[in-house]
Amino acid sequence: MLRIAVPNKGSLSGPASAMLHEAGYQQRKESKELVLVDPENDVEFFYLRPRDIAIYVSSGKLDIGITGRDLLLDSGANAEEILQLGFARSTFRYATKPGTATGVGDFGGMTIATSYEGIVAKHLADEGIDAAVVHLDGAVETAIQLGVAEVIADVVETGTSLRNAGLEVIGEPIMKSEAVVIRRTGSPADDPKVQQFLRRLQGVLVARSYVMMDYDCRVEHLEQAVALTPGLESPTISPLHHEGWVAVRSMVAAKEAQRIMDDLYDLGARAILTTAIHACRL
């Protein structure tokens, strides 16, 4: 069986299980379940702390896992990402009290508090900055107020928590993170079970990003309509009972669907419909 690590809690857990379910895999019904066997798909899922997943995968005990890029890099584990999943996106940045520093170059001799000391230590070394790094679990915004550090490094989404703590973001982002599928570095890239798993997840990503669009169009406007809806290969075109009209079916990006419908209508197309795609293979 293919052995896969899945986050058991936090912002990665729910979306990861939802994506696996959309990809046709069984998922646990109770949060206390630690292992789930899916015999129909020849897969065994292990629900683990997100921070531990890269370690388990790098050990070779598990074949692949879903975790955050930030957690992968912070672990220093012998594992690599092989597919970006597009959820749990975040930006990792430095922050401090206004007037403390204007950029990373001013951090020399300061203490930086973070829950991601591996990422921060490497970034400081790459920048040639000699600063101390203090590891704290959980929220680190109060570290400056309590005198534990002059600077913090943490995940920033809206920046509201930092502003409420009287802090401001400094410098460029250290890194951008999202959920990723990982495997042990150097493991076979052509493993058929892994490739099938990746194809299923890629199918979910495409299905979420596209809709199927159908519409009727006069033949004399067909070339202009097809230019608006080229599809992945080319659209399907079928003649209608009324002479001079054809039916067109094509995949279009979901975020552009409304604009394309407007343009098609202005072109004279009618009966313009969109339907969700639940699964696909490209």
Automatic annotation (TrEMBL):
Activity regulation statement: Feedback inhibited by histidine.
NCBIfam families per the UniProt record, alphabetical: hisG, HisG_C-term
Subcellular location: Cytoplasm
Domain Histidine biosynthesis HisG C-terminal: 207-278
InterPro entries, per database record: ATP-PRT_HisG_long, ATP_PRibTrfase_cat, ATP_PRibTrfase_HisG, HisG_C, N-reg_PII-like_a/b, N-reg_PII/ATP_PRibTrfase_C
Domain ATP phosphoribosyltransferase catalytic stretches: 49-203
Protein name according to UniProt: ATP phosphoribosyltransferase
Reaction(s) catalysed (UniProt annotation): 1-(5-phospho-beta-D-ribosyl)-ATP + diphosphate = 5-phospho-alpha-D-ribose 1-diphosphate + ATP
Similarity field: Belongs to the ATP phosphoribosyltransferase family. Long subfamily.
